[in-house]
Amino acid sequence: MTSDTGQQSVRDKADFITGLVFVVLGAVVFYLSYTMPRLEARNIHPTTIPGLVPMALGAGLFVLGGLLAVKARKGIAGEWESFFAVFRTLEVARSMAALGLVLVFTLVLVGSMPFWAASMIFLFAFVVMMEGVLTPTRASWTSILLWAALTAALAGSAIYYLFAELFLVRLP
Amino acid sequence: MFDGLVLLGQGIGHFLTPEGIFNVIWATLLGLAIGILPGLTATMGVALLVTLTYGMETSQAILTLMSVYLGSIFGGSRTAILLNIPGTPASAATSLDGYPLAQQGRAGLAMGLATTSSTLGTLVGIFFLALLAPLLTEVALNFGTYEFFWLAVFGVVISGQLSGSDTPIKGYVTGILGLLAATVGMESLHAYQRFTFGIPQLGAGIDIIPAMVGAFGLAEILSQIKRQPTLLTRTVTDRVVPTLKEVFQYWKTIIRSGVIGTFVGIIPGVGEDVGAWSSYAAAKRFSKKPQEFGKGSQEGLIAAETGNNAVVSGAMIPTLTLALPGSAAAAVLIAAMYIHGVRPGPMLMIENAPFLYQVVGMLLLATLANLVFGLTLTKLFIKIVSIPQDRLMAVIAVLCVVGSFAITQRMFDVYVMLGFGVIGFLLREMRYPMAPLVLGIVLGDLLDSNLRRGLGLTNGDWTPFFTRPISLVLFLIVAVTIVLSIPPISRGLGRLLANLTRRKTVTEPSVPDGPRPKE
Questions:
Q1: Is residue A110 classed as helix, strand or coil in its secondary structure?
Q2: φ and ψ at residue B400, rounded to 5 degrees
Q3: List of chain A residues whose C-beta atoms are within 8 Å of the C-beta of residue B223
Q4: Does the distance separating the beta carbons of B415 and A92 come in below 8 Å?
Q5: CB distance B70 to B370 below 8 Å
Q6: Which residues have CB under 8 Å from B370's CB, separation 6+?
Q7: How many Å apart are CA B47 and CA B411, to the nearest integer?
Q8: B323 by DSSP, 3-state: which?
Q9: Least confident among A143-157, B343-357, B466-480
């Protein structure tokens, strides 16, 4: 299998799955809109009910999701190993680690300590993770830790000064 | 006519103050840096910077955002020329000829040509903005509820069709997702709360700025961080300032690309990248030396850069006159205008006529700043390129949190940003375009309220949606766009056209007996 065909097969599988997700989402939206109150007590015209547009959008999403799944159906035949292999690459690990760090930063650190401290911890951890752990070509740990500390200190304080002091923007 | 010129003069003069010039300088430099750095886009830059403009006076705030927007579209060309990596998607076509020129040791000339043609592209766009916007506003004053409904549908459908994904279906899907996001919260007709699921913060709906910061900021970080790019640098040894002959020998290409870029800008939600590619394709078609395209053609480089910069001014035409975003970044500008008390749309010329001409002034000053910095700060650009991506992305992530929190100072908006960031990342990875999503969010209320209001006015009669002249035209455009996006129909139509052309070519020489035109 050539690399292009392989990529197309992976993309088709992804399109097929997302197509089905949109079919389900469309159906759920349609159901929720259909069962939305019609406000008969207020004597409103039936064509102005709140659920009208969401109902149409849900139906549209259902149809388009179905079309997408049908279009990508050829790709679901054959092996799935290459599809699952995509999730085991360093690239995905880097994206997921970045997302995890952002979630810890926003959901845990922010609010439990001053914003400048939270952002400095996040910046330090992010640089160490990306340049020291999840990287194919790592520099020396001294250099990585030094740069991470420098980035955290400089960028953390600069963001705080710029927003909170200079432009008087309230920080979380 | 004379009033227009006076307003235009006042619009430009309004910003010739120390504050205005200072804002243009720093915002353009920031925009250039955003454009130069791969992974940072114009939309992301404008969305993040809205936070910094809260405390500013309205026109200065929009001037700042406009300078960032134009600066980043222009800045992307530096990386495209020096490293063959488009700094923003808008510069992808620039790299086709810019990079080969740099490889030939003419990186300076390439940057100079890109700078001057960007300026000329913006000027062509500004000309059309000043000319068409007041006319379009007058036409739009006749729009009623039916026309606004179709305008919203038109925006989402056209954007879904043209935003460059592998199938229009994906564009339509993201458009619907955007429209659905806009239905969350209290609807304006009967004050009913839709899809709030008992979460009080959802009652006010989803705010566009946190959504955009997520879809264009966090999503971009998660996409870019996947790879660790190798840092490359290139020295520039030749002259940067081009001669007048080097630029103006391609005056036809400049005008054509400027016009194409402007009209691509007018099409809702279709961005600078499409403007650049369309101009490039047209330039290649009409060029005397098409074989040089892709190998360091100065004409190709000029076409791409004129085209993408003209889109920015062109995008302002529907943005200001119809509140219909001409590009994704323009959608953020609309949100910023509302925050600062400016209501774009047909009433703009009545409520705040000087503002339209102030926008022309903003674009003129911003493009002048681009020209000056573009021709003088070459060494600085090369330094910016070498900033390590991982550290930069960490800083941008912190800015995403600040940018989404600052608008209403509630953590809920940060969670909205996270949600849109994750969804945007997943959709991006599967090649779903983001522009229709943004258009959906911006136009959702327009579509929903005007459809139901129109039906309410007619007691449920759909006829006016199809019989009023402008409504009919908009409906036909939408219908034809959708029908043509169905593969069997578009293929069949393509075959039919090809057959007709072939038959014409075959029959033309075989009519010697027919009547001939007199010579």
A1: strand
A2: -60, -40
A3: 95
A4: no
A5: yes
A6: B28, B32, B70, B71, B74, B115, B118, B119, B122
A7: 18
A8: coil
A9: B343-357
Q: Do B384 and B79 contact (CB within 8 A), yes or no?
A: no
* Angle CA B212–B159–B125, to nearest 5: 90
Question: Which pair of tokens denotes residue B328?
Answer: 């994704």
- Please tell me which of the candidates A29, A49, A123 has its beta carbon nearest to residue B398: A123
Is A88 an interface residue toward B (CB < 8 Å)? Answer: no
Query: What is the distance between the alpha carbons of residues B322 and B309, in angstroms, rounded to a whole number?
Result: 21
Rg (CA), chain A: 24
Angle at B28 between CA B132 and CA B248, to 5 degrees: 60
Element (H, E) at A74: none
Cβ atoms of residues B386 and B233 within 8 Å: yes
The pair of three-digit structure tokens given for residue B326, joined into one six-digit string = 């001409």
Compute the residue count for chain A: 172
Q: Give the whole-angstrom CA distance, residue A12 versus residue B485.
A: 19
Whether B203 and chain A come into contact, CB under 8 Å, resolves to no
Bridge-partner residues for B193, per DSSP?
B186
Q: Is the Cβ of A157 closer than 8 Å to some Cβ of chain B?
A: no
* CA B312 to chain CA mean position, Å: 6
Write the pLDDT tens digit of every residue in B262-299: 999 998 878 788 899 999 999 999 999 999 999 999 99
Query: Looking at the complex, does the CB of residue B189 fall below 8 Å from at least one CB of chain A?
Result: yes
User: From CA B410, how far away is CA B312, in angstroms rounded?
Assistant: 32
Chain B nearest C-alpha distance from A19 (Å): 10
Cβ B173–A92 below 8 Å, yes or no? no
- Which candidate, B220, B213, B224, B180, places its Cα nearest to that of B418? B213
- Indicate the burial class of A8 (C-beta count within 10 angstroms; 0-12, 13-18, 19 or more): middle
Place of tokens 């493009």: B367
Distance CA(B29)–CA(B43), nearest Å, equals 16
In 3D, which of B218, B419, B200, B438 has the Cα closest to residue B335?
B438
Taking a C-beta distance cutoff of 8 angstroms, is the pair B114, B94 a contact? yes
Positive or negative, the CA dihedral B424, B427, B431, B436 is negative
Residue in chain B lying closest to A150 (CA): B391
Strand partners, B186: B193
Comparing B107-111, B211-215, B237-241, the range with the smallest average pLDDT is B237-241
Phi then psi for B315, rounded to 5 degrees?
-65, -25
User: A110 at the B interface (CB within 8 A)?
Assistant: yes
Q: Distance between CA atoms of B45 and B71, rounded to whole angstroms?
A: 10
Pairing mode, strands B185-186 and B193-194: antiparallel
Q: Rounded CA gap, B111 and B131, in Å?
A: 30
Indicate the Cα dihedral angle A46, A48, A53, A58, nearest 10°.
Answer: -20
* pLDDT tens, position by position, A43-67: 888 899 999 999 999 999 999 999 9
| Ordered alpha helix ranges (H), A72-140 | 81-85, 90-104, 115-128
Residue B341 sits at the chain A interface (C-beta within 8 Å): no
- Please tell me the distance from the alpha carbon of residue B424 to that of residue B224, in angstroms, as a whole number: 13
Asked if residue B513 has pLDDT above 80, the reply is no
* CB crowding A49-83: b at 16 or more within 10 Å, else e: bbbbbbbbbbbbbbbbbbbbbebbeebeeeeeeeb
Range 210-239 of B in CB contact (< 8 A) with A: 218, 221-223, 225-228
Q: Using the 8-state DSSP alphabet, how is residue B492 labeled?
A: H
Place of tokens 């068409």: B132
Q: Alpha helix (H) ranges present in B287-345?
A: 298-322, 328-339
Phi, psi of B406 (to 5 degrees): -65, -30
